[in-house]
Amino acid sequence: MAKKDIGLFEKYLTVWVLVCIIAGIGLGKISGDKIDFLSDMNIATVNIPVAILVWLMIYPMMVQIDFSSLKKIRRNLKGLGLTVTVNWLIKPFTMAFFAWLFFDQLYSAWVDPDRAQEYIAGAILLGAAPCTAMVFVWSYLTDGDPNYTLVQVSVNDLILLIAFVPIVQLLLGITDIVIPYNALFTSVAVFVLIPLLAGYLSNRYLISKWGETWFKTSFLPALKPVSIIALLSTLILLFAFQGEQITQNPFDILLIAIPLTIQTYFIFFLSWIVGRFLKLSHAICTPAAMIGASNFFELAVAVAIALFGLDSGASLVTVVGVLIEVPIMLSLVNLANRWKY
Fold first, then answer.
1. Would you say 69 and 151 are in contact if contact means Cβ atoms under 8 Å apart?
2. What's the mean per-residue pLDDT of the chain?
3. Interatomic CA distance for residues 191 and 57, integer angstroms
4. Longest dimension (CA), the chain
5. CA geometry: angle 273, 276, 282, nearest 5 deg
6. Which residue, 59, 7, 5, 23, is CA-closest to 236?
7. pLDDT interval class at 1 (50, 70, 90)
8. Do 62 and 198 form a contact (C-beta atoms < 8 A)?
9. How much is the pTM?
10. Which of 76, 109, 126, 142 qualifies as a cystine partner to 336, CB 3.0-4.6 A?
11. Per-residue CA distances from 77 to 82, 85, 184, 258 (Å)
């Protein structure tokens, strides 16, 4: 059997993010206040340049979702039950707890209270958005069941439309952050609902017109660079605004990474242990654990920017989430393969 390998972009995502950090900070230093005009290009609460880039990021993921796969839901009810329970009843709350514990309590000597609240908000946005794209990569690398992975992603996308806003409202309210409700609802509509509908409709149309083989072998590979370029462009823009803050407080990056890392490993091991207890097969247990451990960071970044601004601590936390996710998930891929049963 040929050895499975991760794509160049996915494998070195952390490197690309670091390059974007450097490029963004440099751009911010060179342009000075001139770049501020981008942050003022808003309609309602949505920043237009960011919205365009996020759509380009998310659409290639959404167009792959085949909701007709939901008719197979009964085949793996235990696995789906584990996924839904961990992603929506446990993960957001453990992320909020770890964020509160570190940013508000353990880091009180290094992070001021206002900044701590912004960091907590960013962590909450990450915790409330389970992965919808990279989980396909992690599932593939660990011999996960591709049909089950597709079903669980489809189910989570549907739940995301209903549960994301209430969970974020609840957890942000607990942390005493003033919630701009209109911005929150608008962000979900703009960054989830619209790309999801566009992806679903174009998926049905393109497959019916050109066939599934063309769709998978020609259209999706051609679309992939669009998502990559949009993601990297968004990060450059974000760090152009965050540059001064980062150069003044580089220690904050490390402080942010610690609770996010703990949360990732905690959710994976929790899902893995429960999956083994439920006697799930390796092909089901692994993607069930992977989807909870990873995050829909594109959505988290977009909503953090819409709610708190490009130069906010919340936005910084979501970007650090991007920075650490791939190396951590690759370590979990290695563990899952080593523990294969």
1. yes
2. 83
3. 10
4. 61
5. 115
6. 23
7. very low
8. yes
9. 0.78
10. 142
11. 9, 12, 32, 34
CA distance 292 to 274: 13
Beta carbons of 306 and 183 less than 8 angstroms apart = yes
Give the N- to C-terminal CA distance of the chain in Å, as an integer: 18
Q: Residues 68-105, buried b or exposed e (16+ Cβ, 10 A)?
A: ebeeeeeebeebbebbbebbbebbbbbbbebbbebbbe
Domains of the chain: 8-338 (1.20.1530.20)
Up-side HSE of residue 53: CA atoms within 13 Å toward CB?
22
> Long-range contacts: 106-110, Cβ < 8 Å, 24+?
107/255, 110/251, 110/252, 110/255
Tokens of residue 23, six digits: 């490029």
pLDDT tens digit sequence for 65-80: 777 766 767 777 899 9
pLDDT tens, residue by residue, 129-172: 888 767 877 887 888 887 788 788 878 888 888 888 899 989 98
pLDDT at 185 over 80: no
Long-range contacts of 216-225 (CB under 8 A, 24+ apart): 220/60, 220/63, 220/64, 223/59, 223/60, 223/63, 224/9, 224/60
Structural element, H or E, at residue 47: strand 46-47
**Residue 85 reports pLDDT greater than 60:** yes
> Stretch 92-114: mean pLDDT, rounded?
94
Helix locations, the chain, DSSP H: 8-11, 13-31, 36-39, 48-62, 77-84, 91-99, 113-127, 134-141, 146-174, 181-188, 194-210, 212-214, 220-248, 251-277, 282-293, 297-308, 313-338
What is the C-alpha to C-alpha distance for residues 61 and 210, in angstroms, rounded to an integer? 19
Phi, psi for 200 (deg, rounded to 5): -65, -45
- Mapping DSSP onto H, E and C, the string for 171-211 reads HHHHCCCCCCHHHHHHHHHHHHHHHHHHHHHHHHHHHHHHC
Mean pLDDT of 244-250: 69
Q: Which residue has the higher pLDDT, 64 or 216?
A: 216
